[in-house]
TrEMBL record:
Hydrolysis of 6-phosphogluconolactone to 6-phosphogluconate. It comes from Hymenobacter glaciei. It is an enzyme of class 3 (hydrolase). Keywords: Hydrolase. Belongs to the glucosamine/galactosamine-6-phosphate isomerase family. 6-phosphogluconolactonase subfamily. The gene is pgl. Pathway: Carbohydrate degradation; pentose phosphate pathway; D-ribulose 5-phosphate from D-glucose 6-phosphate (oxidative stage): step 2/3. This is 6-phosphogluconolactonase. It holds the Pfam family Glucosamine_iso. InterPro entries: 6-phosphogluconolactonase_DevB, 6PGL, Glc/Gal-6P_isomerase, NagB/RpiA_transferase-like.
């Protein structure tokens, strides 16, 4: 489980952007397309802006890239909390990505219906093969959640590769999220984590006792794919060895 640790956030972002480019080129060469699930929250915004910048935008054949979201808040796409809005603003609009290459959650539906609709859309996209993303980007909360897999929620016990709706008391809202089995079908998973406030969570997930109920990101173990961590030094500070 390769660790990429850098002194600064900037260096970490460039390393992950290079990795993203590499995975995109690999997928497009092998299968004619690159299918990525974006993460939300605040950390990846800088990554998306970097990928859309003149330093990277010309390194990828963007018309061959298809964008999904690993999780979403149950809010309108115009809401400042929307992961879709963040990615649209930082990455998708600046790159002029065509609407039919962007698969956003239908958050106008009730949560359970939105989750079911997204599961159907994902399965139809990959049909007749199982849903296998080329890359799933993930963040990490300071409570060790990832995507919207929060501690002590029912979705942690999902055994099906699908999307589920889950009410998360901690954030007092419904979240829509890939289950761990769906994430674990990916060819590659990359965590982007920076800041000292995440150091304890990084240590718990990577080196703590196995307890997925407490540390849900421990569930992320791609069965036939790679898992990489892109960390700045403060986020890696508590790791032993
Ligand atoms: O929808 C979300 O918020 C993300 O999917 C979530 O899992 C995020 O990655 C972590 O909460 C870290 O968020 P920050 O990057 O904002 O610390």
């Amino acid at each position: 489980m390769p660790l990429h640790i850098h002194p600064t956030i900037e260096a970490t972002l460039h390393d992950l952007a290079d990795y993203f480019v590499g995975k995109a080129r690999e997928a497009i060469t092998a299968r004619g397309r690159f299918v990525v699930a974006l993460s939300g929250g605040s950390s990846p915004k800088k990554l998306y802006e970097l990928l859309a910048s003149s330093s990277y935008r010309d390194q990828i054949a963007w018309p061959e890239v298809y964008f999904f979201f690993g999780d979403e808040r149950n809010v309108p796409r115009t809401d400042p909390q929307s992961n879709y809005l963040m990615a649209k603003t930082a990455l998708l609009a600046p790159l002029g990505i065509a609407d039919d290459h962007i698969f956003a959650f239908r958050t106008e539906l009730a949560p359970t219906a939105a989750a079911a609709a997204y599961t159907t859309e994902i399965n139809a996209f990959f049909s007749p093969k199982p849903a296998r993303f080329d890359l799933v980007l993930l963040g990490l909360g300071d409570n060790s959640h990832t995507a919207s897999l929060f501690p002590h929620t029912e979705v942690l016990r999902a055994t099906t590769a699908e999307v589920q709706a889950v009410f998360v008391p901690e954030v007092d809202m419904y979240r829509l999220t890939f289950t761990a089995p769906l994430i674990n079908q990916a060819r590659a998973v990359a965590f982007l984590v920076f800041g000292a406030d995440k150091a304890a969570a990084v240590r718990r997930v990577r080196q703590g006792p196995r307890n997925a109920e407490e540390f849900p990101a421990q569930l992320i173990m791609p069965s036939a794919g790679e898992r990489r961590w892109f960390l700045d030094a403060p986020a890696a500070a508590d790791l032993a060895g």
